[in-house]
Amino acid sequence: MDIAVIGSNMVDLITYTNSMPKAGETLEAPDFALGCGGKGANQAVAAAKLGASVMMVSKVGEDLFADNTVKNLQRFGVDAQHVTVAAGTSSGVAPIFVDDQSQNRILIIKGANAHLSPADIDAAAEDLKRCRLMVLQLEIPLPTVYYAIDFARQNGIQVILNPAPAVAGLDIDYACQCDFFMPNETELEILTGLPVSTEDEVLRAGQMLLGRGLKNLIITLGSRGSVWMQGDAVHRIKPTPVKAIDTSGAGDAFIGCFAHFLIQHGDIAKAMQSASDYAACSVTGRGTQLSYPDADTFHRFLN
Ligand code: ATP
């Protein structure tokens, strides 16, 4: 395996409704869809769709979503032998309500994801040691994230930490042990308490984090592109122009693709450019994992 993603999986339960029910009211809604998501699973699937060999360490609940989640990962080529059941829990789910104005209301229930523990890292240790890159997010308990970072350091594995969703208590000393720290602009704002509306503000907030000892800071800025900061050096990647239809999961597409190309050739700027193109391609389609192009489709998009 090249890449180990230690993180979350979620099942999106999407109800399309003409209007939202009031308290005590029952309404009929015209449509429903079920989708596989979770930041960890999305990033694993993006890298695997591009051809990376990816394993995932994750927890599912003791329910009917578990089997579907494992099969979905396997369908996209992700090794799921370390995706295990947390007894007595529900799988992570996200009930999403979309009204006729395309407004979302989303609830997140972490379920089994909250039970991924250091013992799960130990159980996968022999396979993890063979990976070259570990990818982490914050939809699992922080002590597990810290344990994974320690494990990676002890075993010479590079680490990408995507601090999403932003957690106020994140220990920046652990972030500094990672090779790449990759927030989006909202997470950067929460982590620093500084405004990020203009490019100058983004760079100022970035410098504040770098000043605390980060190695490489890569900030995704939605339709404004992305920026890589290392020491005093700043490298900007312009957004790839596309007609965006659905931007959900764009950040995960970016990170999964970046991980794949980083492992392929080790050139950070080139991997970012590919990630930017890949994420742009993903926003031209609906959904998260389903909108991620495979290697052939991505190749056609570029040409
Ligand atoms: P999510 O939480 O939905 O996964 P995010 O907020 O973490 O997304 P963004 O910063 O919005 O991630 O987007 C990630 C990357 O995707 C951007 O840096 C950019 O390269 C690309 N991207 C996003 N939106 C667009 C767009 N409208 N046009 C072109 N590229 C886009």
Structure description:
By secondary structure, the protein is α/β, with parallel strands linked by helices. Helices cover 36% and strands 22% of the residues. The strands form three sheets. Strands 5-4-1-8-9-10 form a six-stranded parallel sheet, sandwiched between helices. The protein has a four-stranded mixed sheet with strand order 3-2-6-7. It has a three-stranded antiparallel sheet with strand order 11-12-13, with helices on both faces. The structure holds adenosine-5'-triphosphate. Adenosine-5'-triphosphate binds next to helix 9 and helix 10.
Summarize the structure.
The chain is an alpha/beta fold. The protein contains eleven helices and 13 strands.
Bound chemical compounds: adenosine-5'-triphosphate
- How do the SSEs run, as a string of H and E? EEEHEHEEEHHEHEHEHHEEEHHH
Query: How many H/I helices?
Result: 11
Strand content: 15-25%
What's the gyration radius in Å?
19 Å
Q: Can you give the mean pLDDT?
A: 96
Give the helix/strand class.
alpha/beta
Largest β-sheet summary: 6 strands, parallel
Distance between the termini: 29 Å
Tell me roughly what share of residues is in helical segments: 25-40%
Overall geometry comes to: globular
β-strand number: 13
Strand order of the largest sheet: 5-4-1-8-9-10
- pLDDT under 50 segments (min length 5)? none
